[in-house]
Specification:
Elements: H1 7-21, E1 26-30, H2 37-50, E2 55-59, H3 62-74, E3 80-82, E4 95-99, H4 100-106, E5 114-117, H5 125-133, E6 137-142, E7 156-159, H6 163-168, E8 174-178, E9 190-191, E10 194-195, H7 197-205, H8 208-218, E11 224-227, H9 231-243, E12 248-250, H10 257-267, E13 276-279, E14 294-297, H11 305-313, E15 324-329, H12 333-336, H13 338-347, H14 360-367, E16 370-372, E17 379-381, H15 395-412, H16 415-421, H17 423-433, H18 437-452, H19 470-491
Parallel strand pairs: 1-6, 1-7, 2-4, 2-5, 3-4, 5-6, 8-15, 11-13, 11-14, 12-13, 14-15
Antiparallel strand pairs: 9-10, 16-17
């Protein structure tokens, strides 16, 4: 089977080649969850072994060994597996799928000209030591390059597309977020940046009933994955689902490896008898079930944006008949990470070393940029009405929020954010200023271009006017004054 790449995957390979030509041996490839990192890596592996060179694909989870091997089998790439007691032990093959745990225990990497490290945001000592040697080309794969110190391990990052772009192009699924309830985490002890597990579990147990109730309301009976704080919490969630007649199972570290493998095999079937898997962290990496229709977040995270995005991304793969993924947030995570994840989904990663987590005051301000509809519990950016059910909010509250968001988007937002929020207000101002539609179009474009030094990405005719806020009106007045003064100066 030939490996057919999408345009952005071809671009990624070309940028990796350019980085290698420039002398970089340790390259990090950042691609969103579900974008085809393994397919892209398989193309590189195939190209490597066709040149009679050796290649190792390193994974840090036992369940990912067989999953990666199955992908290579699908592309007819001959390979062996380096993992304790694995029947596909074939050290003579040029391509090897390796368990990092096995390699770490042995203290020696297999010979290779190219090493591909999956989920490289988890930096193992064995990987750090190997990459420091510089005796091979090393390519790390990740969707979340937020780990501090990645810049000391990898020399350059390749980032060719974003989550939102792939959603717009139809390569990833659309999603809707509902935030019906969340545990009160006030006063919970913090350990290594996250809430202490046992106490967090106690708080999360109080909303377990809501988890099942909201799935029945919004989950459409689809397959789901649910995050839990610990095994005790996972067991309680499974029990609640089973009581409601929904067959789900616990997918945690205390379940034997062979049993978990059977669970995944069954869960991947389109007609699977298993509706859901409840996990702590076992399914947060490399978990590939495209027809997953619902992601339930029941584990509160305080700072781990990477863990949040990894779980979120489990539901964004596309599948026949799948129109969207429903995110049910019973953790408060979507509100806590609202600004971070929306910015990352739109713009992608910009640097290897993530900036420091925003302080408490800043995070609180970001949470205020989202709002949960009191009627349907839909979580969305602040606007005058709920885009899911149409519920209208008090104008004064909505306008206060909108003004604050607008000010920040104008100062340091993305081009897409400015088009979405500022451009409709400029259009409304121009239409009110000039009666003729064509003159209003030219005026709006000129003002927007003058303001941001670029054109809006949405045509005038396709933009629904939005009543301009005071900030936009004042900016238009400033431009009027500046234009009038320039005319006076020209006349003089």
């Amino acid at each position: 089977m030939d490996i057919v790449l999408r345009k952005y995957q071809e671009d990624a390979i070309e940028q990796i080649r350019n980085a290698i030509r420039a002398g970089h041996k340790n390259v990090l490839l950042c691609m969103p969850t579900g974008s085809g990192k393994t397919a892209t890596a398989s193309w590189l592996i195939d190209a490597c072994q066709k040149k009679l060179k050796r290649c190792n694909f390193m994974v840090d989870r036992i369940n990912l060994v067989d999953q990666t091997s199955a992908v290579l089998d699908g592309y007819h790439i001959q390979h062996g597996i380096m993992q304790a007691s694995n029947p596909r032990w074939k050290p003579y093959e040029r391509v090897q799928v390796c368990s990092l745990q096995t390699i770490s225990r042995r203290g020696q990497w297999p010979e290779g000209d190219l090493n591909i490290i999956d989920e490289c945001h988890t930096v193992h000592k064995a990987v750090r030591d190997k990459l420091a040697k510089g005796d091979a080309i090393n390519i790390g794969l990740t969707a979340t390059p937020f780990t501090d110190g990645l810049g000391s391990v990898y020399q350059v990052m390749v980032n060719v597309t974003t989550t939102n772009q792939l959603i717009r192009d139809g390569f990833l699924s659309k999603y809707r977020i509902f935030a019906p309830s969340e545990p009160d985490m006030t006063g919970v002890k913090v350990v290594n940046g996250e809430w202490e597990t046992h106490e967090a579990s106690d708080r999360a147990l109080k909303v377990v009933g809501d988890v099942v109730e909201e799935y029945l309301k919004h989950g459409n009976g689809g397959k789901f994955i649910c995050s839990a704080v610990d095994v005790r919490h996972a067991e309680a969630i499974v029990e609640q689902f089973q009581t409601a007649g929904i067959y789900c199972t616990q997918y945690t570290y205390n379940v034997p490896d062979d049993v978990r493998a059977e669970m995944i095999t069954e869960f991947r079937k389109p007609d699977s008898t298993i509706r859901g898997l409840v996990t702590v962290t076992a399914a947060s990496k490399g978990f590939d079930v495209p027809d997953l229709g619902c992601v339930i977040m029941a584990r509160p995270l305080r700072k781990s944006l990477s863990e949040f995005i990894q779980l979120f991304g489990r539901g964004l793969r596309t599948a026949p008949g799948k129109e969207e993924c429903i995110i049910l947030d019973h953790s408060g995570n979507c509100k806590r990470f609202w600004d971070d994840f929306n910015l990352f989904f739109e713009s992608g990663a910009e640097a290897l070393n993530r900036k420091k987590i925003r302080d408490k005051k800043k995070r609180k301000k970001e949470e205020e940029r989202s709002i949960t509809c009191p009627e349907c519990k839909f979580l969305h950016k602040v606007m005058p009405h709920c885009p899911n059910c149409g519920h209208e909010y008090p104008n004064r509250v909505a306008l206060q929020h909108e003004a604050g968001i607008l000010e920040e988007i104008i100062s340091d937002g993305t081009a897409e954010q400015r088009t979405q929020m500022v451009w409709p207000q400029v259009v409304a101002w121009a239409l009110a200023r000039v009666g003729d539609a064509e003159k209003a179009r030219r005026l709006a474009l000129a003002r927007y271009r003058s303001w941001f030094d670029r054109w809006p990405s949405t045509p005038f005719e396709e933009t629904k006017p939005v009543a301009p806020l005071k900030l936009v009106i004042n900016k238009m007045k400033q431009m009027d004054i500046a234009w009038a003064k320039s005319r006076q100066k020209a006349g003089a």
